[in-house]
Amino acid sequence: MALQMENKKVTKKVNELVANEGVFFVKLHQYHWYVQGAHFFTLHEKFEEFYNQSNEYFDAFAERLIAKGEKPYSTLSEYLEVSSIKEAPYTKKLSAEEMVSNIVADFRTLKSIAVDGIKAAGASGDASTEDMLVGYVDSIDLNIWMLQAYLGEDATK
């Protein structure tokens, strides 16, 4: 019974990541399209790299759930309902630094969900999901470090 509850926690956390990655993917596209300023070329390319990476994780998490006999969220309404990451129409110009700061905050949100998923996967004996999430957190940490360096901040600030 306890193992079954831990498995449900794993599913919930991975599905939260599916929803959050779905919203994050769209938000990253928005920033990719609207970024301006002296660092346009660098950030335009970096945001594209991030949304391609986001798409890979989004797909991998959903496929992991299906492989476990679960049902990943698969509609925009589900993503928006479950996601902790928020997006909004681009009606007010954001500076490149604001965009980068927002992306750092979103990466931290994703990391928090993933760390909870790692704990649940470990407790349930789901080594495959645990390993997948550990690699994901490693990638997020690297992205946060680089973006914080761009902002002239320490990675852990």
How does this model look, in words?
The chain has 157 residues and is mainly α. It is 77% helix and 0% strand. The chain has helices at residues 2-34, 40-67, 76-82, 96-124, 127-150.
**Oligomeric organization of the protein chains:** single chain
In helices, the fraction of residues equals over 70%
Mean pLDDT: 95
Radius of gyration: 16 Å
What global shape is seen?
A: globular
Strand content: under 5%
Distance between the termini: 40 Å
The number of distinct β-strands equals: 0
Count the helices. How many? 5
Please trace the helix and strand order, writing H or E for each element.
HHHHH
The major pleated sheet works out as: none
Secondary-structure-based class equals: mainly alpha
| Low-pLDDT segments, ≥5 res | none
What's a quick, concise take on this entry?
The chain is mainly α and 157 residues long. The chain has helices spanning 2-34, 40-67, 76-82, 96-124, 127-150. It is built from 5 helices and no strands.
What labels describe this entry?
single chain, 157 residues, mainly alpha, globular
